[in-house]
Automatic annotation (TrEMBL), chain A:
PROSITE patterns: PTS_HPR_DOM, PTS_HPR_HIS. Coiled coil: none annotated. GO terms for biological process: phosphoenolpyruvate-dependent sugar phosphotransferase system. It is found in: Cytoplasm. Pfam families: PTS-HPr. This is Phosphocarrier protein HPr. Residues 1-92 form the HPr domain. Its main location: cytoplasm. Keywords: Cytoplasm, Phosphotransferase system. General (non sugar-specific) component of the phosphoenolpyruvate-dependent sugar phosphotransferase system (sugar PTS). This major carbohydrate active-transport system catalyzes the phosphorylation of incoming sugar substrates concomitantly with their translocation across the cell membrane. The phosphoryl group from phosphoenolpyruvate (PEP) is transferred to the phosphoryl carrier protein HPr by enzyme I. Phospho-HPr then transfers it to the PTS EIIA domain. GO terms for cellular component: cytoplasm.
From TrEMBL, chain B:
This is Phosphoenolpyruvate-protein phosphotransferase. Phosphoenolpyruvate binds at R291, R327, N439, D440, R450. Residues 9-128 form the Phosphotransferase system enzyme I N-terminal domain. Residues 257-526 form the PEP-utilising enzyme C-terminal domain. The keyword Protein biosynthesis does not apply. It catalyses: L-histidyl-[protein] + phosphoenolpyruvate = N(pros)-phospho-L-histidyl-[protein] + pyruvate. It comes from Glutamicibacter soli. Mg(2+) binds at E416, D440.
Length: 92, 563
């Protein structure tokens, strides 16, 4: 099981636009990726490609989240996704 | 297909003449029954497949729209497309289907849970709950095989036909795609009318029978005469082409006058400091109506003295050295205020509203006058103060005394009640000026509710009886030594009617800032004797539509500018 921490970099939090960008990126990953707030049990983690789950997470700017994935390419996929989360998409 | 023409008559609330295909505003999606069972003969698996296919096709349609959109609209469409194909949403709905619920009820319930969760997060997320409900309605429409709710999407510009439009519908209205608005309901003050004027789209409201217009039918929509005609022929094509080739209106140069140099100052109706700045930038020669309700509406308690001073001051600041006519609080009827008006009145339009609230709840008005006086003292605007809903000379006198007591130099009365127009001379011998509120004056003269679509024909400021009362008002002003008469209703924003008003003896016209340039351009084409002649034509007409037709026929410049 690969696991990464990421800190939300979008000033507005994981809201509609940043969530859409991240959900699309997660859907393109070759493995299934889950997302959870730091400190929450792994079995409560949500589907990272679901925009509604991401928005329901209520992750604000600076919130730490945990990404998890299993299987071939998991490490590379998570590295990529951490970058997406830590970018401030609202400044683009 | 029949080539016979059918014409529907309504009220033209925004000028313009276009020909285009109709698209109807779909009916809103109704909620499916709670936990309705699987359709007869279907299996859970087949139903899940049907649901998945529906979500995919809704997502694909939204994605396709996103591809042609730009900026914020594109981002929103992209996000909603992702919501439609969201795996978590589909999973929770599928679970319900496996339990024996049909696809419509399952997606309805599953999306409801998501929306509730987002709403609980508050703020920005709570606003997105609406997006989830919109996506849900689209999926259910797809499952039912009916058009998606909301403004229809089309590659070809179209004439939007609806019963009436809600604020939420008009927010997504793309003026590049919609050629004109036609509604079977609504009136000149409806939301449809307001949005059409602000977008500059031709619009016809209260056109009974237009519910018969169907998708794809070609129609001629005439926002000037208020008609919609099917199967347009050569005559309508000519009218639409003339409109399309209209001359652009010159910007208002800040100097309203007739062709012979007779001055008609053009002022703006404003409702806030921001509004006032925009009106000043558009060339308004002052403010003819400052609606002070903006400071009061939506509140449980009266605003403080300081809050009021700041709010009025923001408007005075934008018009230093110019006239600003402040209307004291006009609460009641369609603008109830919990601390001032009684909402249980059986007929609020004829109840305690406007100036009348001072007798029922004394204090609010004198405190407002004190705030206006202080703000006036802190700024350079020439502040005039008037009360709404004055019905007798005695009321005008009492109000003028309150104004003087507050230390304000100029006090006046609105003429909205027919009794005030009839006794304008007496009113003006007790105060300094009057301003005609033609919207209410029309409603009270014609006994026709302004909010009722079915009363639209009577509720028209072109009604000769209303024009006679305006004439009586200016004659009263003359008998009282030539005191000023203004108009601050929608009537002043109609360029043809503006000419008539000047001909009836009105001195100043106040309107929304977008009307300044068309009204100024048309006034510049007539001299005072011509305006008086046109006013006489309108006074003698036997209906509002005849008055309008007779006057418009004498103003060829209207066509030149497409008004």
């Amino acid at each position: 099981m690969a696991e990464r921490q990421a800190i939300i970099g979008s000033r507005v939090g994981l809201h509609a636009r940043p969530a859409a960008i991240f959900a699309e990126a997660a859907a393109e990953a070759p493995v299934e990726v889950t997302i959870a707030l730091e400190g929450e049990p792994a079995e409560d983690a949500l589907d990272a490609s679901s925009i509604l789950s991401l928005m329901g997470l209520g992750a604000e700017y600076g919130t730490t989240v945990i990404l998890r994935a299993e299987g071939e390419g998991a490490e590379e996929a998570l590295d990529k996704l951490v970058k997406v989360l830590e970018t401030d998409h609202d400044s683009e | 297909m029949s080539t016979q023409q059918v014409s529907y008559h309504g009220v033209g609330v925004s000028a313009g003449r276009v020909i285009g295909p109709v698209l109807r505003m779909p009916d809103p999606i109704t909620a499916p029954a709670d936990g309705a069972p699987l359709p007869e003969g279907s299996t859970a698996d087949a139903e899940i497949e049907r649901l998945a296919a529906a979500t995919q096709s809704v997502a694909a349609a939204l994605k396709a729209r996103a591809a042609t959109a730009t900026g914020d609209a594109q981002a929103v469409l992209k996000a909603t497309a992702l919501m439609a194909s969201d795996r978590t949403l589909l999973k929770s709905a599928s679970k319900l289907v496996s339990g024996g619920t049909c696809a419509e009820s399952a997606i309805w319930e599953a999306a409801d849970a998501v929306a509730t969760q987002l709403a609980a997060l508050g703020g920005y997320m709570a606003e997105r709950a609406g997006d989830v409900l919109d996506v849900r309605a689209r999926i259910v429409a797809e499952l039912r095989g009916v058009p998606a709710p909301g403004i229809p999407d089309s590659d070809v510009p179209f004439v939007l036909a609806a019963v009436d439009l809600a604020p939420a519908d008009t927010a997504t209205l793309d003026p590049a795609k919609v050629l004109a608005l036609v509604t079977s309901d609504g009136g000149p003050q409806s939301h449809t009318a307001i949005i059409a004027r602000s977008l500059g789209l031709p619009a016809i409201v209260a056109a009974a029978g237009t519910t018969a217009l169907d998708d794809g039918m070609l129609v001629f929509a005439d926002g000037i005469s208020g008609t919609v005609t099917t199967n347009p022929g050569a005559e309508q094509e000519h009218l639409a082409a003339t409109y399309a080739n209209r001359e652009p209106l010159p910007d208002f140069d800040g100097n309203g006058m007739l062709a012979d140099g007779h001055l008609v100052p053009l002022l703006a109706n404003v409702g806030s400091g921001t509004d006032a700045q925009a009106a000043a930038a558009a060339g308004a020669q002052g403010v003819g109506l400052l609606r002070t309700e903006f400071c009061f509406l939506g509140r449980d308690a009266e605003p403080t003295h300081q809050e009021q001073v700041a709010a009025y001051g923001a408007v005075f600041e934008a018009f230093a050295g110019k006239k600003v006519v402040v209307r004291t609080l006009d609460a009641g009827a369609d603008k109830p205020l919990p601390f001032l008006t009684d909402t249980t009145e059986p007929n609020p339009a004829l109840g305690v509203r406007g100036y009348r609230t001072d007798a029922a709840s004394p204090g609010v008005l004198s405190r407002q006058l004190a705030a206006i006086a202080q703000a006036a003292g802190e700024h350079q605007a020439e502040v005039w103060t008037m009360a709404p809903m004055i019905s007798t000379p005695a009321e005008a006198g009492a109000f003028a005394a309150m104004v003087a007591e507050a230390g304000l130099p100029t006090g006046g009365a609105m003429i909205e009640v027919p009794s005030a127009a009839v006794l304008a001379g007496g009113i003006l011998s007790r105060c300094d000026f009057v301003s005609l509120g033609t919207n209410d004056l029309t409603q009270y003269t014609m006994a026709a509710d302004r909010q009722l679509g079915a009363m639209a024909e009577l509720n028209d400021p072109w009604q000769p009886a209303v024009l006679h009362l305006i004439k009586a008002t200016s004659e009263g002003a003359r008998s009282a030594g030539g005191k000023p008469v203004g108009v601050c209703g929608e009537a002043a924003a109609d360029p043809a009617l503006a000419v008539v008003l000047v001909g009836l003896g009105v001195n100043t016209l106040s309107m929304n800032k977008r009307a300044l340039s068309p009204v100024a351009a048309v006034l510049r084409t007539v001299d005072l004797p011509a305006a008086r002649r046109l006013a006489a034509l309108a006074l003698d007409a036997d209906s509002a539509s005849e008055a309008r037709r007779l006057v418009r026929a004498e103003l060829p410049e209207l066509d030149r500018f497409g008004l």
